[in-house]
Amino acid sequence: MQSISKNNTKGCDYVVNLKPRMIEKVQKCLETHVGGEAYFNELDAAIKSDEEFLKSFMNRIIKETNCNNFVMSGEIGSVYFKLCSHDDIRLLLLPGGLRHGKELPHDVERIYEGMEFVFVDDSYYSGKTLNAVKKYMESTGAKIIANYVLYDGSRENKDNVKSIYRYYNYH
C-alpha cells in the first residue's frame, strides 16, 4: 500500500510504502515488549514522531476517499493539526478521552448538516472512540463516510475500519 503526498501537507512530495513501515515499527516494539501498556506507549510514540509516515497516511486517505474533511480526537489530532496545511484540509479536533465518556462540545461552527468527514485515529481496539465520534457527528447532521486507523488491535475484524496494520492478522 503506497501513499503519494503532493502539496496538501505543507508541500511534501514523496512516496512512503506504509504497510512495511508499520510492520517495522510493530516488530521493533515487540522486540522489547510482549504487549501491555509499555508496548502501546512505545508504538504510539514511534508513529507520532514519524512525520513523513503520518503525512503519507493522510494523503492515502484523501486519495481513497476523495474527502478533505477529517475528524480526530486526542493527541493524534494535535499532531496532525501541526503537520497539515489547513488550506488543503479541514481538520476537526475533538477532545481526547472520548472512550472514557468525556463530554463533547455542544457547538462546533465548522460543521453543517450533510457535511462528510473521515474519522482518523492512530489505533483501534474496542471501537468506543469511533462510536463516540460517530454519535457526536450524527448529532450535528454531519456524516462519517470512512474510518481509518494505523494500528488495529481489535480481536474482531470490522469491515468499516481500514487499517495499515491489523495485529490479529499476524499474531
Could you explain the architecture of this structure?
The chain has 171 residues and is of the alpha/beta class. Helix content is 39%, strand content 26%. The protein contains 5 helices and 7 strands; from the N terminus they run ββαααβαββαββ. The protein has a 5-stranded parallel β-sheet. Helix 4 links the parallel strand 3 and strand 4. Helix 1 packs antiparallel against helix 2. The longest helix is centred in the first third of the chain and has 15 residues. The two termini are 20 Å apart. The N terminus is likely disordered.
Concise structural overview:
By secondary structure, the chain is an alpha/beta fold.
Mean pLDDT: 82
Beta-strand percentage range: 25-35%
Biggest sheet record: 5 strands, parallel
From the alpha carbons, calculate the radius of gyration and give it in angstroms. 16 Å
Distance between the termini: 20 Å
Tell me the helix content.
25-40%
Instruction: Write the H/E string, N to C.
Output: EEHHHEHEEHEE
Strand order of the largest sheet: 4-3-5-6-7
pLDDT < 50 stretches = 1-15
What are the key terms here?
five-stranded parallel sheet; globular; two-stranded antiparallel sheet; alpha/beta; 171 residues
